[in-house]
Design goal:
The chain is α+β, with helices and mostly antiparallel strands. It is built from eleven helices and 17 strands. It has a six-stranded mixed beta sheet with strand order 13-10-14-17-15-16, with helices on both faces. The protein has a five-stranded antiparallel beta sheet with strand order 3-4-5-6-7. The longest helix has 23 residues. The structure holds zinc ion.
């Protein structure tokens, strides 16, 4: 079948990532500067970028203020990462490009495409004097974690993985009666398949549930925290009234002061910081690798890496994401997820994403 993971050559899944990290890391001296500055004083970020991009002139403003927020010039950011920066024709999309990485950023949009994976931003980008600016918060919460994760201190260990099969017991989750599908059964099935694969690789796996039982939402992160898990993967399937809705999406916890992806503006509650925000950079890095693996292996619609303040993510003490593995309300998807082979492919793609995240962590000095 076309979506079978087995049909993809292994290097296809690992290759670009491997090279992406090396390419973007730049020369050692640059890396050292960045680590030092990012690690001890992020306020000095701009000073750091200026020292490694001597071509910039003082006439170009690296940072601007807008509605009380700091925005950073993307051409300067790209230069600091050794990437070319230019507008695509039509002047609606700005591109940062290196040999292995392509980032397309829409003007006035809260969305970018990093190697074709849609990633939702906290704030719309901003054009000023023909230059495109990104909220500095988005630079720190999206680009830096994926492109230069070495900028962040305390890289997490990865030995004990907590898998959270969504719903259970009285709570069936999404349903498709015509295909006799209950989300709670699908999530448990995929979770068990993922567990076996991870255990074969030598990870310790803890499940928030191993049978058809109701577990309150707030218990799920508690289980992960008490077990001192290093990673939390919450597995779900979607449903929508519009039966044509389809595709895969990954949610990471919304950073403090930002609106979640479904809201246009930050609200009053969004200034609250949760325990899970301590893991912001690693949540992004994990989310990127899992979403990328999922869509590369499974095809279909890539709904991207989004942000939400889900209860299971807010109180986590380790990196975590929540995955929506397709719409059971879509007849085509419903037909596919009935197949054990398809569910095995889903689990395999999640496994591959976790391994790619782990390998990326291991390459951080
Ligand atoms: Zn669900």
């Amino acid at each position: 079948m076309w979506w079978s993971h087995g049909s993809l050559p292994f290097y296809f899944l690992l290759g670009p990532d491997k090279i992406e990290g090396r390419n973007l890391a730049g020369p050692r001296s640059v890396l050292r500067d960045q680590r030092c500055l990012f690690g001890f004083n992020r306020q000095l970020l701009i000073g750091c970028l200026l020292t490694i991009t001597p071509s910039i002139t003082t006439a170009q403003r690296v940072e601007i203020q807008h509605e009380g927020r700091t925005y950073i010039d993307l051409a300067t950011v790209g230069g600091g990462l050794g990437m070319k920066a230019y507008w695509l024709s039509g002047h609606k999309t700005f591109r940062l490009r290196s040999q292995w990485t392509n980032i397309d950023i829409g003007k006035g949009k809260r969305l970018l495409y990093l190697n074709r994976i849609p990633i939702y931003l906290g704030f719309p980008t901003l054009e000023s004097s023909s230059r495109l600016y990104m909220a500095k918060a988005d630079y720190q919460h999206v680009l830096q974690p994926i492109l230069t994760p070495q900028a962040f201190p305390e890289k997490p260990a990865l030995r004990r993985i907590v898998i959270d099969a969504g719903h259970g017991g009285n709570d069936s989750g999404a349903k498709n009666d015509a295909y006799r599908l209950h989300e709670k059964n699908l999530t448990l099935d995929v979770s068990q398949r993922l567990k076996s694969m991870l255990e074969r690789r030598g990870y310790e796996v803890i499940m928030t549930r191993e049978r058809d039982v109701f577990i309150p939402l707030e218990r799920r992160p508690q289980i992960a925290n008490r077990a001192k898990g290093d990673l939390f993967i919450s597995i779900h399937f979607n449903a929508a009234a519009r039966t044509t809705a389809e595709g895969y999406e990954t949610f990471a916890l919304t950073p403090q002061y930002q609106a979640s992806s479904k809201y246009s503006e930050p609200g009053r509650g969004d200034s609250r910081r949760y325990d899970g925000n301590d893991q912001d950079p690693w949540n992004t890095l994990l989310g990127y690798h899992v979403q990328r693996s999922l869509v590369q292996a499974m095809g279909g619609t890539d709904r991207g890496l989004k942000r939400a303040r889900f209860l299971v993510l807010k109180h986590l003490h380790c990196p975590g994401v929540l995955l929506e593995l397709g719409f059971v309300s879509n007849p085509e998807t419903a037909q596919k997820v009935r197949s054990a082979t398809f569910r095995q492919s889903l689990a395999q793609s999640l496994y591959d994403g976790i391994i790619q995240y782990h390998k990326r962590l291991q390459r951080i000095p």
